[in-house]
């Protein structure tokens, strides 16, 4: 069934919005793509589970638009909205941790899926790094939800990001190492997650089977 995975992820919307999104996936030039981009971002901020998969929906629309008329209207509106939210990220974090984590998850998801000529989108590199650096600050490391978000994103896009700017990745991991070694008040889970991601990068963005067994049995416990 064509687009069944995307269809499944948009079941949470009202009927009119579902119709709009389904049309955007197949015939993007026939709908208001700015409205579509706003709906996807708004939903990602509200629902963390949606934010994890929304990049795939964006990718499908971008591909459909490029095939239809070589257009980039949806991508432009999406990047504008992401930029707008990025400028207000600190206010967002204070207002709602769920929105903040949803935003970081979504922008990393978009970075993972949307490429230009098979290359990472340069426009997203700085904001993605800034978001991850914020999650590595001492006050964020005290919050397990933020540590979990940071580690998940680094598992997903860390290697890609390092290829684009390895110096910035070094800076991020200096923060994480210092946090692991020096930060007071870390939960045992946060400490375990930080140790795992430090080892994950040191191993060339992979874990040995022994290390994998150790960390994931500890997390399951």
UniProtKB/TrEMBL annotation:
Residue span, MIF4G domain: 7-204
UniProt cross-references to Pfam families, sorted A to Z: MIF4G
Listed InterPro entries: ARM-type_fold (IPR016024), MIF4G-like_typ-3 (IPR003890), mRNA_TranslReg/HistoneTransl (IPR051367)
Primary location class: cytoplasm
SUPFAM superfamilies from the UniProt entry: ARM repeat
UniProt KW keywords: Cytoplasm, Nucleus, Translation regulation
Compartments, record wording: Cytoplasm; Nucleus
Subunit structure of this chain's protein: Interacts with eif4g1, eif4g2 and slbp; probably tethered by SLBP to the 3'-end of mRNAs ending with the histone stem-loop, it also interacts with eif4g1 which is bound to their 5'-end.
Family membership noted in the UniProt record: Belongs to the MIF4GD family.
Function: Functions in replication-dependent translation of histone mRNAs which differ from other eukaryotic mRNAs in that they do not end with a poly-A tail but a stem-loop. May participate in circularizing those mRNAs specifically enhancing their translation.
Protein name: MIF4G domain-containing protein B
Native organism: Ameca splendens
């Amino acid at each position: 069934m064509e687009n069944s995975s995307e269809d499944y992820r948009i079941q949470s919307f009202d009927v009119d919005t579902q119709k709009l999104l389904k049309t955007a996936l197949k015939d993007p030039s026939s709908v208001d793509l700015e409205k579509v981009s706003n709906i996807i971002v708004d939903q990602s901020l509200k629902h963390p589970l949606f934010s994890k998969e929304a990049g795939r929906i964006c990718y499908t629309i971008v591909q459909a638009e490029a095939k239809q008329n070589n257009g980039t209207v949806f991508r432009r509106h999406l990047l504008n909205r992401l930029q707008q939210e990025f400028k207000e990220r600190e206010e967002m974090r204070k207002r709602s941790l769920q929105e903040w984590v949803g935003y970081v998850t979504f922008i990393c998801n978009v970075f993972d899926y949307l490429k230009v000529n098979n290359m990472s989108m340069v426009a997203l590199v700085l904001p993605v790094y800034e978001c991850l650096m914020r999650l590595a600050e001492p006050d964020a490391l005290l919050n397990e939800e933020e540590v979990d978000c940071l580690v998940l994103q680094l598992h997903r896009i860390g290697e890609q990001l390092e290829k684009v700017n390895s110096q910035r990745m070094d800076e991020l991991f200096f923060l994480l190492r210092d946090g692991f070694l020096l930060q007071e008040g870390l939960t045992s889970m946060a400490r375990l997650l930080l140790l795992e991601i430090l080892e994950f990068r040191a191993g060339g963005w992979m874990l040995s089977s022994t290390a994998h067994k150790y960390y994931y049995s500890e997390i399951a416990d």
